[in-house]
Design a protein that fits this description.
single chain, 261 residues, alpha/beta, four-stranded antiparallel beta sheet, binds adenosine-5'-triphosphate
């Protein structure tokens, strides 16, 4: 039986500072994410969203502070154990677009297969479920280079779903998509979080959409990085200071930004 992750903190950060040897990018980052929640990380260009996501995936070390997965420090996990806990969806072009959609999605099972990568019946079933969940069954044989940006994005998410981790991290999953496909992907992420009790976290520039669709938001702002439900952040006036107010202002009533003319 699967553990009910919705009742406890699955992923948390305490006074986290992130960045690079000569470049402290952000500090004072605090959050606690439960299972079954969709969370957006937002903030202006270069504020550190991708750096934070990479730090959460243990692809780079924190400068200070801590990250815990299931209340254990991230750095106590072996890479193998971590790949069964956290999956990461990057927007970078695939190394091999020669793979078919089904082959790409099956790669999600790698953490569980033996050294020659033989798929078991369970691996095949998880791959099929992921293909079906993302509406990819009919194009399973298509090569990845034949896909539209939206289809490729869905295939990358399906690979993460096949990996069947409690935590899914996605770096800008809606870039290059039109409004309809942006909403489609975000709604899909929300239903994955709510229906499978996974903790889903993504970076985005779609602040208004995130306000409407996410359970929680982390706003990287270079100072105190407010975290909470979108309505709480609106009440705190957290969105008002994101952009210089001679350019764009935030309307808390509608949860939208207005261009100053
Ligand atoms: N490998 C690296 N080495 C040193 N500095 C880096 C490296 N990668 C990114 N940075 C710097 O870290 C800062 C944060 O970059 P990051 O990509 O995390 O921001 P972001 O919020 O995701 O930006 P965007 O919205 O433009 O994608 C930037 O100043 C960037 O130049």
């Amino acid at each position: 039986m699967k553990e009910d992750t919705s009742r406890h903190t699955v992923l948390s950060a305490t006074d986290l500072a992130i960045g690079y040897k000569k470049n402290k990018v952000a500090r004072h980052i605090n959050f606690a994410l439960n299972g079954g929640e969709l969370t957006a990380i937002v903030g202006i260009n270069g504020i550190g969203k991708s750096t934070l996501l990479r730090t959460m995936a243990h692809m780079q070390p924190p400068l200070s502070g801590s990250i815990e997965v299931d209340r254990k420090p991230l750095d106590t996990y072996t890479p193998q154990k971590l790949s069964s806990k956290i999956s990461m969806v990057l927007t970078e072009p695939l190394a091999s677009k020669n793979l078919s959609v089904a082959e790409l999605v099956a790669l999600g099972r790698q953490p569980y297969t033996n050294w020659i990568g033989t798929l078991t019946e369970d691996d095949r079933q998880k791959t099929e479920e992921a293909l079906a969940a993302l509406g990819l069954a009919s194009i399973r044989k298509k090569k990845c280079y034949e896909l539209s940006d939206g289809q490729l994005q869905r295939a990358m998410i399906a690979r993460a779903l096949a990996q069947d981790t409690a935590i899914i991290l996605l770096d800008e999953p809606t870039t290059h998509l039109d409004l309809y496909h942006k909403v489609q992907i975000l709604k899909l992420l929300k239903s994955i979080a709510h229906e499978t009790q996974k903790t889903v976290v993504f970076t985005t520039h779609e602040i208004e959409m995130a306000i409407q669709l996410c359970d929680k938001m982390l706003l990287l702002n270079g100072t105190d990085n407010p975290f909470g439900q979108p309505c709480q952040l609106i009440e705190q006036g957290a969105f008002e200071a994101i952009f210089p107010d001679d350019t764009v202002t935030f309307d808390g009533e509608t949860g939208t930004f207005r261009i100053k003319k």
